[in-house]
Specification:
about 375 residues; alpha/beta; Rossmann fold; 2 domains; 8-stranded mixed beta sheet; 12 helices; 16 strands
């Protein structure tokens, strides 16, 4: 009986993939199975509380956010709304999933309060610094030049995805910081009808690209409870992720649907991310000796087999009067400050000369597979 129930939940979750729904996010969320999504991106109403009409210095009208969906009677009503949708999102998020929430100073601190109270674990706050923000026309405050994103895992112990190496590559081999300078949505990307913006807070694709690159992998299931004009789903489709979006307003839903129909996925073989080195177990050369994979007294060679060194019991190697680590001795032989001993030294493995790094890589794969290093390792036969 239980297995049939689980099968039904899985089937229902599968049926939701690559769909967008027109409806109230909280009501639709209640229909979604537990632990369905790898990542959630939420751009909830900001509750801007704009009392007066905004005008430019030339007296022309500013088309700000004045939509009904952004209006709440008071903070209590907004707080209750936040607790509802955040609670449902936590339920449908996988145990190792994470959530991104974007907001302005009007709402992000209230949202963050509920995020923590509901048991999410905040990983970062990220500042989206807009390089082309709307000016402050009244001249009574600082220009609002940024928005804040909260990135949180489902709980403190979640093993969330973070593609550190890919982000570093995206940032010219520098660590990606928590302040991102990206333009607001404008130009041909901004969706308009009769010269007017369709959606007042349309997010740029560049922002979603960075978020999905950072915290998802190809094939992951992405959810957006406030889909708006569809940017999250569009970027997810391009990047080979599955998606589900919910949008209450029919006009935005129709725009999102049209955008998705025109969106083409990037070719699959261009979607792989660089693997994080830190995710791999660190295997010192001495571990190969402890596990009996290599033995003290065994010979290792350079690629041309002109240099012959002996392995010692403590994990060092000895060549003539030089002794030390596989890296230190190799560096001394070639007259360099450093050398990767794993690729310099070779051994005879089942009749073939291979770099000793082959032994390490096999050990790493077994370690990851067994997740019980080193007890379940079986020695490889080396001659």
């Amino acid at each position: 009986m239980e297995s049939n129930y689980l099968r039904e939940i899985i089937m229902n979750a599968e049926q939701l993939k690559n769909k967008i729904l027109n409806g109230d996010c909280v009501e639709e969320l209640k229909k979604i199975p537990n632990k369905s999504f790898d990542l959630i991106f939420a751009d909830p109403p900001y509750n801007l509380q704009i009392g007066k009409k905004l005008k430019r210095p030339d007296n022309s009208k500013v088309n700000g956010v004045k939509d009904k969906w952004d209006q709440f009677k008071n903070f209590e009503q907004y707080d209750n709304f936040c607790k509802e949708w955040l609670g449902e999102c936590k339920r449908v998020l996988k145990d190792n999933g994470s959530i991104w929430i974007i907001g302005s100073y009007h709402n992000i601190f209230r949202v963050g309060y509920h995020v923590q109270n509901l048991g999410y674990w905040i990983l970062n706050d990220v500042i989206w610094k807009k390089n082309n923000p709307m000016p402050n026309f009244r001249g009574t405050r600082f220009t609002n030049a940024h928005e804040t994103l909260i990135w949180a895992s489902k709980n403190k112990n979640s093993k969330y995805t973070f593609n550190y190496q890919s982000l570093k590559c995206l940032n010219d081999d520098l660590q990606m910081r928590s302040d991102w300078t990206l333009p607001i949505c404008n130009g041909s990307e901004r969706i308009k009808k009769d010269g007017k913006k369709i959606h007042s807070t349309q997010k740029p694709e560049s922002l979603l690209h960075r978020i999905l690159l950072a915290s998802t992998n190809k094939g992951d299931f992405i959810f957006d409870p406030f889909l708006g004009s569809g940017t999250t789903a569009v970027v997810a489709k391009k990047m080979g992720r599955k998606y589900l979006g919910i949008e209450k307003e029919k006009k935005y839903f129709n725009v999102a649907k049209q955008r998705l129909e025109k969106t083409t996925k990037i070719e699959d073989h261009y979607l792989d991310t660089i693997k994080n080195y830190k995710l791999k177990p660190r295997i010192p050369f001495g571990s190969l000796i402890e596990l009996g994979i290599v033995k003290p007294g065994m010979n290792i060679f350079d690629q041309k087999k002109k240099i012959n060194a002996k392995i010692m019991a403590d994990g060092s190697i000895k060549y003539h009067n030089s002794e030390g680590s596989i890296h230190k001795v190799a560096a001394k032989i070639i007259g360099a400050e450093s050398c990767n001993g794993w690729t310099y030294w070779h051994c005879n493995l089942n009749g073939s000369m291979v770099p000793i790094d082959n032994l390490r890589q096999k050990l790493i794969l077994k370690t990851i597979k067994n997740q019980n290093y080193p007890r379940k390792m079986l020695p490889m036969h080396i001659h």
